[in-house]
Amino acid sequence: MRRTASLRMVGEVFAAALIGVSALTLAASTFANDDRDHGKKANKAHRSHALVLTNGTIYTMDDKDPTKARVVKEVLIKNGRFAEVGKKVDRSDKVRVVDLRGRVVIPGIIDPHTHIVLVANRPGYHTPMEHVFTIPEAIAEYLVRAAEMNAAGVPPDQFITTIGPIAARQFAEQRLPDITELNAIPRPVYIQAAQGGIRANNAAAAWFAANNPAVIVNATTGAVSGPALQTLRLAFLTHETRKRTAHNALQYYTTLGITTHGDSGAFHSELPSNGIANENTYTMHFPLLALNREKNLPARMRIDFLHQDPASDTALTTLAPRLRNSFPYFGDDWLRTRGIGEFTGGGVPGLVAIGKAGWRGEDHSLSLSNFLGLVANRQITHDQLIAEGYPDGISKLRWVISHVPGTTEASVNQWKAMGGGLLVGWGPTRGPSATGAPIGPAYRTLFDNGIPLGYHADGGDITVINPWMNFYTMITGRNLSGDLVNAGQTLTRWETLWLATAANKWFVSEDDLGSIEVGNHGDLVVLDRDFFDPVKVPDSEIPRIRSILTIVGGKIVHDAGALRGHRRDDDDD
Fold first, then answer.
1. Most buried in the list 53, 323, 418, 546, measured by CB within 10 Å?
2. pLDDT at 501 over 90
3. How far apart are CA 83 and CA 81, in angstroms?
């Protein structure tokens, strides 16, 4: 009874807090005040050592053509950037030396279109599960999480959750864990898969029964119905829990090699929602902003603002104030704004307003007819801007259409002529078409076309973020179940990784990311196996690739310990 009353009170307080501009001002000042106690400690934690990585197979990825690939043995990272790239780098200053022992090194992976902000705001002790491929592996991971919570003195009613970054197709069993399997975990567990359903255990069922009887957990399967996610959000989301989850989410993806995320927003909900893709778009970035002020972001963030004003809304109710009062590409090397998307809103008038304001714009396409309509509207926008005295139209703004399961050569060339780009990589959890026809994107055709092309996952709510799962589909044409879904449209391993690194410079508008070159940001990943060797690493193993060492701006943000016995630390600080 007390918990139910507290939930109701939390909902009332949350509703009151979101009435009017003063609520946002108060929330922002609260986050700002959190910084005052960090000072030197936070600054020192964020400092990067001078690092030498030696005795490796370091792919610089500075050329699209694998026959011209530059492979070096050593790099020096100094003041957060690559200072030397070659065979023998300078060691005259105090440096930390990491012996790679022949390991393969790649630039940090850039994913310019995910919904990482949704993962960053999940309730409970959120536990992404994109690195496990059998149900016993998943249960083992949940048991580790439960032990960590117990050791930290976390109260027993606190949930372990996985909301979004998990899919039934990734498991050999082709299903999610059932209630019997989840009952092995001595805490409430709640899973809401990007695709594949919702599951909970008996401890979670008992909690829901006491706190919101409208949520029903099937006693046989563990399937969940009712407003479960909304209930968990009301109960467990605070500034501190959001900040914890945001940090843990970014940290998790460094273990998979992602060093830069382009966030593509959420569907707006003023109050906590039951929708997996919903969040308050005016407050959801606060935990990420707080981490950046504390100099505690494990990866780089690039933020887009999603707008959905209907074409009939001539006032552009949400978009117009954004364009008047915000700034594109505003921030620092770790976190900055970028553009309008994944939806631009407002129809052609919205596109024209975005173009006049000089912002990047992005919309997604889910079908051929959808893509043709988007290209046609952008042509109208481009021509109108030129007619109104903007001589370049949209050609220099790097506008994007993402997903693109259906395209034609003519429409792609039309979009390319306007200076547009395409993001692909969407599909490891999708099923085959009823006719057996390729479900797209047409990776090979688009890569050969020459239009600016980059990789994205679109994960966090409706699919997975793990790049290696996505790479597997791009390389093999198969989904995570092994179904052939894209015959004739596959890429090589080199081409796939190039799209996720150097090619994505274009999509984040930053030439000093995505390749290992002097002057670029010191972002790199040491892999646990040789992605480029199909004999040592057959296609079936690609989804299991992980990082053993991830460095962002010269700062070690993930260290699995595999190289620990081979590191010499010459820095006495």
1. 53
2. yes
3. 6
pLDDT of residue 181: 98
- Which CATH number is correct for 38-108+514-573, 2.30.40.10, 1.10.10.10, 3.90.230.10, 3.40.1110.10? 2.30.40.10
**Coil/strand/helix, residue 53:** strand
How long a stretch of residues is the chain?
573
Q: Give phi and psi for 181, each to the nearest 5.
A: -65, -40
On the CB side of 263, CA atoms within 13 Å amount to: 26
The confidence band for 48, taking pLDDT boundaries of 50, 70 and 90, is low
Cβ neighbour number for residue 249 with a 10 Å cutoff: 27
Cα 465–chain centre separation: 6
Q: According to the 3-state scheme, what is the secondary structure of 218-241? A: CCCCCEEECCHHHHHHHHHCCHHH
d(CA 61, CA 501): 7
Q: Phi first, then psi: what are they for 90, rounded to 5°?
A: -65, 135
d(CA 257, CA 467) in angstroms, rounded, equals 8
Q: 522-559 pLDDT, tens per residue?
A: 999 999 999 999 999 999 999 999 999 999 999 999 99
Residues 551-569 pLDDT 10s: 999 999 999 999 875 455 4
Where do the DSSP E strands lie in 91-232? Answer: 96-99, 104-107, 109-114, 125-126, 160-167, 189-195, 198-200, 216-217, 224-225
| Rounded Cα–Cα distance for residues 45 and 38 (Å) | 10
| Mean pLDDT score across all residues of the chain | 91
User: Where do the structural domains in the chain lie, given as residue ranges?
Assistant: 38-108+514-573, 122-236, 365-512
Q: 3-state DSSP call for residue 500?
A: helix
| CA 90 remoteness from chain centre | 35
Per-residue pLDDT, 426: 84
> Could you give the angle at which helices 493-500 and 467-476 cross, rounded to 10 degrees?
140
pLDDT band at 92 (very low <50, low <70, confident <90, very high): confident
Asked whether the beta carbons of 220 and 179 are under 8 A apart, the reply is yes
Longest C-alpha distance within the chain, in Å? 68
Give just the sign of the alpha carbon dihedral 301, 529, 444, 457: negative
Instruction: Please give the class, per CATH, of domain 122-236.
Output: alpha beta
pLDDT in tens, 189-217: 999 998 879 999 999 999 999 999 999 99
> Tokens 């390729």 map to which residue?
438
